[in-house]
Amino acid sequence: MESDDYVGRYGFEVEPFQEDYTGRLSWGVLGNLLLRCASLHSAHYGFGYNRAEEDAYAWVLSRLVIELDEMPRTGEQFTVETWVGRIYRLFSDRPYAVRAADGRVLGYALSVWALIDKATRRPVDLEQMADPEFRRSLVGDRPCPVQPPRRIRVKAAAPTATYTARYTDIDINGHFNSIRYLELVLNLFPKERYATHRVARVEMAYSSETYCGETLSLYCEEVAPGQFAVEIRKNADTQPQVAVRADITFKPYEQE
Amino acid sequence: MESDDYVGRYGFEVEPFQEDYTGRLSWGVLGNLLLRCASLHSAHYGFGYNRAEEDAYAWVLSRLVIELDEMPRTGEQFTVETWVGRIYRLFSDRPYAVRAADGRVLGYALSVWALIDKATRRPVDLEQMADPEFRRSLVGDRPCPVQPPRRIRVKAAAPTATYTARYTDIDINGHFNSIRYLELVLNLFPKERYATHRVARVEMAYSSETYCGETLSLYCEEVAPGQFAVEIRKNADTQPQVAVRADITFKPYEQE
Q1: What pLDDT is recorded for position A124?
Q2: Residue in A19, A36, A170 nearest the CB of B191
């Protein structure tokens, strides 16, 4: 659902089998809904995959930051709002607000995208490229108060976990699904942590794509109490390459 | 959406990020939608999780058979129909039909459920237990022409794959998600197979629950051309126990 203010508003309900074991909307479902809303919103304004240039260009997710005070629970309704916040050289910012049924903000997210020329695999200059419709859809003055992306550095020499990409992990572009990386990060921690702690902030910085059959190694270290830096490297034994850097911050429920 | 004929009808559209890499609705999303429809339909007729006995009983999935001629693609609409087909001693059959937007049947599914007394962890006799409303909702004469469940036997001594259950795999009951097992089965095969073959039939027979931290070992063998039997055992090294038996049949797209 889009409106005249160029903000897309998409209503959802937390359905059975979309929750984690604590009864809250799972991060995997939320993350994929954010990407879906981006796709619907950009398609609506004529700068998405449905355009004539569909075959020539593709939006690629570069960064994703999600900061939530509260995750909706089974049966609860929520709304995802998204808009185009900024266009600057090779990147476009797409912020989000997640609202409860009563309009209260549950959290914000910020995604950063590049538009790739499929032929050259290089990003295009959005300041040159953006068409009038896309420029018109810019909503520069709407707040999205997430902490800006950080510089994530991990020194750990031994991986905490490894995972080999398989068929069900691969998205329509032939790459490891962006949100599956987030699930791998969440899975570094024991299940019990999620009963006592909420994930207050996650940041994902996407560096290189992972293909089916490639093995990911996850290096993790606590950089501050409750805050962990994670580096996901592919082909760690042969040609190490950073696929994703992540940063995740837990807060105990008791403190709130 | 339910109607007077006791058949639940739920409309969906294949949304971006719900597809596999070939652009078809992913089996993981379809499987969880089938479970969601079961939950919505049984709640509507007063024999689901929303009842007063919610705390005393839980439906447990015993078997799931899905036979599809065709999987809907991104942007296509489809409808899941489900109804209560049979009640017999400890089990209740819940059939499904999956229809394209034009009403054409894309496939059928059959799920078999037991109602567990949470205190004793034992199934109750549904012929004794079922209330009038549940009996009234029985639709015995509606066709669901799936091949009946098979006896699945695997002799393979060495596992093809192993997987350790983590936080994001665990459902609200604290168990490994029923459909994640299906994803593990699909992931036994190279991605390329799904470009040339469709999954014509899958059968899952659930034996014992898997908990977070337990390791699953998958034993697989081809029992007929394109048909594979899979046994998923937990704690294979210490106290082997069958979690799930599965049977999956591929058909080449070319033959159709």
Answers
A1: 87
A2: A170
Give the Å distances, CA to CA, from A237 to A42, A230, A232, B226: 39, 18, 13, 34
Interchain CB distance below 8 Å, B21 and A174: yes
* AA identity, residue A23: G
> What mean pLDDT is reported for chain A?
91
Evaluate if residue A45 carries a pLDDT over 80: no
Q: Which residues of A touch B36 (CB under 8 A)?
A: 15-18
Cα separations in angstroms, A182 against A15, A245, B236:
21, 10, 29
Task: State CA A12 to chain mean position distance.
Answer: 18
Cβ(A185)–Cβ(A246) below 8 Å:
yes
Q: Which of A164, A163, A174 is nearest to A60 (CA)?
A: A174
Q: Where would I find the beta strands (DSSP E) of B84-181?
A: 86-88, 91-100, 105-117, 122-123, 161-164
B168 CB neighbours in chain A (<8 A) are 20, 26-28, 183, 186-187
Q: What is the pLDDT of residues A195-223, one digit of tens each?
A: 999 999 999 999 999 999 999 999 999 99
ipTM entry: 0.92
What is the fold, at CATH topology level, of the domain defined by A8-136? Thiol Ester Dehydrase; Chain A (3.10.129)
Stronger pLDDT, B1 or B35, i.e. the higher one: B35
CA distances from B239 to A45, A54, B170, B216, B243 (A): 57, 53, 21, 12, 12
Whether the per-residue pLDDT at B50 is higher than 50: the answer is no
Class of domain B161-255: alpha beta
pLDDT at B46: 67
CB contact under 8 A, A17 and B49: no
Give the helix, strand, coil percentages of chain A, each rounded to 5.
Answer: 20, 40, 40
Q: Which is it for strands B161-164 and B77-82: parallel, antiparallel or unpaired?
A: unpaired
How many beta-carbon contacts under 8 Å exist across A and B? 107
Nearest residue of chain A to residue B27 (CA atoms): A168
* Chain B residue with Cα closest to A33: B17
Could you tell me which chain A residue has the CA closest to the CA of B212? A191
Main-chain dihedrals φ then ψ at residue B173, nearest 5 degrees: -90, 0
**Domain regions of chain A by residue span:** 8-136, 161-255
Q: Do A213 and B191 touch (CB under 8 A)?
A: yes
Contact B28 A190 (CB under 8 A): no
Instruction: List CB contacts (< 8 A) between B11 and chain A.
Output: none
CA distance B243 to B206: 6
Beta strands in B20-134 (DSSP E): 57-68, 77-82, 86-88, 91-100, 105-117, 122-123
Q: Same CATH fold, B161-255 and B8-136? A: yes
Contact, B88 vs B126, CB < 8 A?
A: yes
Report CA-CA distances (Å) from A213 to A163, A217, B190.
10, 13, 8
Q: What is the pLDDT of residue A141?
A: 85
Which residue does chain B place closest to A190, by CA atoms? B167
